[in-house]
Amino acid sequence: MTHALVIGGTGMLRGATLRLTQSYDRVSVLARSRSRIEQLAARGERGDGVIHPLVVDYTQESLLHDAIAEALNDHGPIELVVSWIHSSAPDAHKIIANQVGSKLKQTGERCRWFDVLGSAMADPSSEKKNRIEEFLYWEKIDYRAVILGFVVEANSSRWLSHSEISAGVIKAIREDLEMSIVGQVHP
């Protein structure tokens, strides 16, 4: 059974979450809003895979730990993580990676982690390097950065739409590059 995890999968990553149900038997989705995740799970029933809702605010570390443990116990090792984690939860990715990595050590499998980041991470002076170095600790997790930019249209710029973000994340997963940029980050 294949298993993916999407953190923040009911908003801008909604389309990517639904696409993942076509490739994975189980897609565990971590989100704060019960109604949004239940709506997503109902839509996901049209895909081949099943959406497993994890209703938790990832800033609540003990609840996050328990939710990831539940997903791992119920559906096995996680082969793919797509995360959109705000800076309000600086340890969330560590909590998740510790559990995912521990399970992978038991099974010998690997996981690809696509970390969706804001456009500020494209700046060479950003903390992106620190984030990448943190993931080197987990030997069974292959870290990938997906940086969100903007779109230039008619001499002005706009932020990416949710569908553009989801399509860009799916493309990044398909191409499996260490760093992908969705849109552009420089004028």
Strand-helix topology:
Layout: E1 3-7, H1 14-20, E2 26-31, H2 34-44, E3 50-55, H3 61-75, E4 80-83, H4 92-107, E5 111-117, H5 128-135, E6 141-148, E7 150-153, E8 156-159, H6 162-175, E9 179-182
Parallel strand pairs: 1-2, 1-4, 2-3, 4-5, 5-6, 6-9
Antiparallel strand pairs: 7-8
Helix pairs in contact: 1-6, 3-4
Q: What can you tell me about this protein's structure?
A:
There is one protein chain. By secondary structure, the protein is α/β, with parallel strands linked by helices. It has one domain: NAD(P)-binding Rossmann-like Domain (Rossmann fold, 3-Layer(aba) Sandwich), CATH 3.40.50.720. Helices cover 38% and strands 26% of the residues. The protein has six helices and nine strands; from the N terminus they run E-H-E-H-E-H-E-H-E-H-E-E-E-H-E. The strands form two sheets. The protein has a seven-stranded parallel sheet with strand order 3-2-1-4-5-6-9, with helices on both faces. Strands 7-8 form a two-stranded antiparallel ribbon. Strand 1, helix 1 and strand 2 form a beta-alpha-beta unit. Helix 1 packs across helix 6 and helix 3 packs parallel to helix 4. The longest helix has 16 residues. It is globular. 39% of the residues are buried.
